[in-house]
Amino acid sequence: MMTMMKRITSLLLLLFWAVQASAAPLTIEITEGAEGALPIAVVPFGWAGPGALAIGSEIAEIVRSDLQRSGRFAALPVKDMLARPQSDADVEFRDWKVLGMDNLVVGQVRPNGQGGFLVRFQLFDVFKGEQLIGYNFPTTHRDLRSTAHKIADIIYEKLTGQPGAFDTRIAYVVSTNKADGTQEVSLKVADADGFEPQTIVTSSEPLMSPSWSPDGRRLAYVSFEQKKASIYIQEVFTGRRQKVASFKGINGAPAWSPDGRNMALTLSKDGNPEIYVLNLNKNSLNRLTNHYAIDTEPAWSPDGRYVIFTSDRGGKPQIYRVPAFGGKVTRVTFEGSYNARASYAPDGESLTLVTRQGGDFRIAVLNLSNNALQVLSDGRLDESPSFAPNGSMIIYATKINGKGELAAVSVDGSIRQRLALQEGDVREPVWSPYTKTNRRNQ
User: Fold this and answer.
1) Alpha carbon separation from 25 to 17, 20, 142, 258 (Å, rounded)
2) Average of pLDDT values for 236-252?
3) Where are the domains of the chain?
4) Are 22 and 142 in contact (CB under 8 A)?
5) Which fold has domain 2-160?
6) Architecture label for domain 169-438
7) What is the pLDDT of residues 141-172, one digit of tens each?
């Protein structure tokens, strides 16, 4: 029996490291963190099973990296820890007071049925000497990274008052040059920390404008794979897809409604680029705009009542708004000569957009209550901004030394991150919404 348990343990270890080995070459580097980051210690979790599995240490490292990467926490290096407690009974708070820690995280992993684990963690206030929260998570080897991200989300929310977004994903487009001189374009999905990449579709023709469904299970995108722009919807997990728009002329910029029943898009089937809404159940179209100018890049308000879009109907690209079922068009942006590619914050109180500053294109946030525009990025060509589902960060595409890369900035501009691929140009990132499995705290 013990021999069998050792074999199972060894198999689980190999499976876990196989998951680790699938890590994407998308690396995230904090280039600027918040002042007064909270000191926190995340102790390697213990293993309460046969053998000496490193699963606990790996889970703790993911939690530590998530919190550190947020820019709001200063995580203590493991080598500097004076002790390695695994539960409240082992904690000596004076050890952590000496190190200047505000908070402490400890945990333990144990076998839980065939192929399963039970992960327990506790968060402590060091100076009060008391537990703040504690949870048990049943999980499997396949879901270990997700479990670690969920733990980081819970800790982040408890200590900042804002839901975490570590257990979410990002989609992005990568272009790489092949050995034969041709270009390969891929739409990829990865965890928010850049790990576990999944290729959704690959083409020798352009792919663009990825857009997440509200349930996080599907992506809409534009493909030129048949030498013609068409809009597809594809299931992330199964790969099943359907073509939903392939009219004459432009078929572009798909954007899901908050309830997932409709899709705003740009069509030029009647001669000029206009904003339409496609009812996905009835396959019927409703035209929202009718103007000789170019209307494009629609995005929905979180309550589903409005669609914003980019238009040059005033002479220069600016953001406009129209009721989701048609009506009067009103202008939203007035500061600057160029504002485009706007989308709403999850709370609906602000927009992120691309604005021109001199000859540079930067990422900005527009406060809708007072029309104050705050520029957040400092690149020459920054584009495609997308809010994290908790509204704390904005991911966007930029150019660094002529190469397309991704970057992220907090909505107050205090935290900056760089997300780099080892090869290929990366563009058009979009952050996933919360899903049913990570909405526990929403």
Assistant:
1) 16, 12, 20, 32
2) 96
3) 2-160, 169-438
4) no
5) Rossmann fold (3.40.50)
6) 6 Propeller (2.120)
7) 899 999 999 999 999 999 999 999 999 999 99
